[in-house]
Task: structure prediction
Amino acid sequence: MKYLKKNVSLMLKMAVLILIFNFVFCTTHAYADNEKMDLFAKYAALLDGESGRVLYGKDENTPVPMASTTKIMTCIIALEYADLDLICETSAYAASMPEVKLNVNKKDYFKLEDLLYSLMLKSHNDAAVVIAENVAQHFLRSNPDEFPVEASTLADRHINELTKEDSKKLVHIFASLMNKKAASLGCENTYFITPNGLDANDEHGVHSTTARDLAVIMSYCINNSKFLDITQTQSHSFSSYNQDNSIIRSFTVGNANAFLSMYTNIISGKTGFTCDAGYCYVCAYKDDNRTFIVALLACGWPNNKTYKWKDSKKLLDYGREKYNVQTVYDKDSPLEPLSVWDGLKYNDFMPYADINENLQLLLSDKDNINVTINYNDVLLPIYKNDVIGNIKIYVNDKIWNVIDIKSNTDIKKLEFIDYFKEILNMFLG
Result:
């Protein structure tokens, strides 16, 4: 019995040692292979801003509230659907928004351009609603068939005379434009309800996005030069007007995105915070040949406002150290000639890859590239520029790009008369 107890005790000790060894070894091994980073954010993404590829992710596809980072979509929708000199009226509903706010008053008038600075520099919630209502009404006037009921009742009314319910209808229309844009960008896990990012939910879901989707939206926004101008501005002064175009009040807004001056080559960014979302941040970095997008969600709660700066720096340092532009496929790479049988002889022709420039991608030393060349069953007739196959480029076993292979010539299919002529020529020598 004593012998048995000793053996059991020894076995238990050995099992504990093995568990400790496995824990230490596996943890170190996982860190080395997957390069896990100790981030404060619960959800994070580092995106290649050119290709849209996630270079590093932490639960990057989980939908969660995103607070005022919402406003990057609000801004780009306003820029794409209305002119900067659009005169915006203020409703009682917009004036009722909670802090942070510009403190607009009902019946104030603003230029849309000025409101966009208020939106993006100081993240004013009331400015977001003024923008949403006026851009939505502008959209209704231009596209009455999109929302026929609302167009007939809201298109030509003064916004400063609308009821709260009518204002909400305009905001809903604006949010539908936001969701439409998100879908077109491939953001399948994003749902907008408000233009300012305040916590909200409705019968369709929660106002939310993912770190990956938010980064994709930012990568789209930075292609708009006015978006960049606004988000890079340090300070902007403007005024509100009455109906007679007389100045009522003057305002100056400063840029709250401190990371612009904390890290080199930051070209845009937007902060956010709500009780549900925590601290959030999205920013864009660009150097000579690389564009990185960082998106952070649930990156701490009060009093941890600086966590987002630390995480952003860590992710950008990682991207800059690990990823560089490499050519994945050279446009001048030769393809082997092909032959097709026309019934009497083989006809040689040269296929070509349908690209005008070398395909380049941010890659690390651990990325694996595989290129396959695939041809269809080539049947006559063939015409110049017919697609006869494709080149598939895989990054880490996932398709990154597909290039069409085309014919460089015409080859006709022989008819009976052609066979007859050939046989006659052979007979006549």
